[in-house]
Amino acid sequence: MVPFKFEEIIVEQGSETSPIFYNLRRSLPEVPVRLVAPDDLAAGREPVRGFAAAKKKLVLARHKGEFLKKCPGSGGQVCCNYFVINFASNCPMDCSYCYLQDYLSENPALKVFSNTDDLLAEAGALLARHRKLLFRIGTGEITDSLALDPYIGFSRQAVPFFAAQPNVLLELKTKSDCVDDLLKLDPKGRVVVSWSMSPQRVIEADEPGTASLEERLRAARRCQDAGYRLGFHFDPMIEYPGWEQDYRDLVERIFATVDWRRVSWLSMGVLRATPALKRAMRERGASARLLAGEQVLCRDGKLRYFQPLRVQMYRRMLGWIRSAAPATKVYLCMESREVWQDVFGYAPGCEKELGDLLLPGM
Ligand code: SF4
Q: Angle at which helices 243-257 and 213-225 pack, to 10 degrees?
């Protein structure tokens, strides 16, 4: 995977004493640093010239709101009772279907939060308040969980913290192969490292800056060998001539590389986009493969393939997964109860039921 090239690090005054700043200086000594006043950052006086340009400047600032929230899911779709914790906003990679192009269109700065201690304290307080509940918490909602890790060292603080908690599974979701620091840590069974997986031809066309399929597989194997639980997300699944052979090969390659008994969960979700995201994808040069397929507007305001096609795609994938990994837990991301019913023959009664189904025996 090619290292990211940052043009500048913009540091909010007060954040220059944080461990993240120290890690940035050590890992990127050649990148110029500029200190700015908090008011200038808050007032947006740091100009950001568009989504792609924003990814070239790394902003380090305190996060002033809450770090932890319930995953918003998508209106009316089956939800898997997941919590998200945001240590950063935006992502140095640039997938052409990325929903952040729409979600962060007003505020695209690539920002890392310097007050990791507050983040961990907030998570620790929630876990301590509900010791009888087992939580699934992920860091990959509005950034990639690991792509920035070689520069900021977040995992060196987060993994030992969550590994010491009795009632959590932390999921680090990535399209990178940045796992070197993870391998030096003991996850104590509390950390799932998961990869979003696509056929290599999709990676080459629509996931610029990410690790190749081979690199992701090698990283997954290294994490498995170091004691991490694994996860894989086939999301977004894309329909194009030849998709079946590509996705079948993908499933077979994964399970020829890792032991399915170490895989905590797999998810499937087809390509989806709000109309605004579809416009951004068109403007930013997404491949014809993404733009061409016919899609319908669903209840949650997102465009998806027709329901019969989605069901057919999920059933085919599920068949290939079941041949290679007979007992691995599989769920659908942001899909309706009807689709669940047609694919699995059942739909979870509530989000807690699905969340509990995904928890491994601890
Ligand atoms: S890796 Fe994820 S967060 Fe980053 S650009 Fe791709 S889809 Fe977006």
A: 30
Which of 232, 244, 233, 234 has the alpha carbon at shortest distance from 312?
244
Q: Which residue type is seen at 211?
A: A
207 CA → ligand 1 middle, Å = 8
Residue 286 has pLDDT above 80, yes or no: yes
| Residue 174 CA, closest ligand 1 atom number | 1
Do 141 and 86 touch, CB atoms closer than 8 A?
yes
State how far the Cα of 308 lies from the Cα of 324, in Å rounded to an integer: 25
Element holding 135 (H helix, E strand): strand 135-138
User: What's residue 251's pLDDT?
Assistant: 98
The token pair at 4 is 């990211």
Which protein residues touch ligand 1 with a CB less than 6 Å away?
91, 93-95, 98, 100, 144, 175, 210
Cβ contacts of residue 314 below 8 Å, gap of 6+? 268, 270, 332, 339, 343
Got the DSSP string for 30-45?
TS-EEEE-HHHHHTT-
User: Ligand 1: distance of its center to the CA of 346 in Å?
Assistant: 31
The string of pLDDT tens digits covering residues 216-248 is 999 999 999 999 999 999 999 999 999 999 999
Residue located nearest, by CA, to atom 6 of ligand 1: 95
Q: Integer distance in angstroms from the first to the last C-alpha of the chain? A: 34
pTM: 0.94
- List, for residues 307-317, the tens digit of each pLDDT value: 999 999 999 99
Q: How far is CA 160 from CA 165, 198, 262, in A?
A: 9, 30, 20
Contacts of 222 (CB under 8 A, 6+ apart): 179, 183
Up-side HSE of residue 70: CA atoms within 13 Å toward CB?
9
Q: CA 144 to CA 8: how far, in whole Å? A: 20
**How far is residue 127 CA from its own chain's centroid?**
22
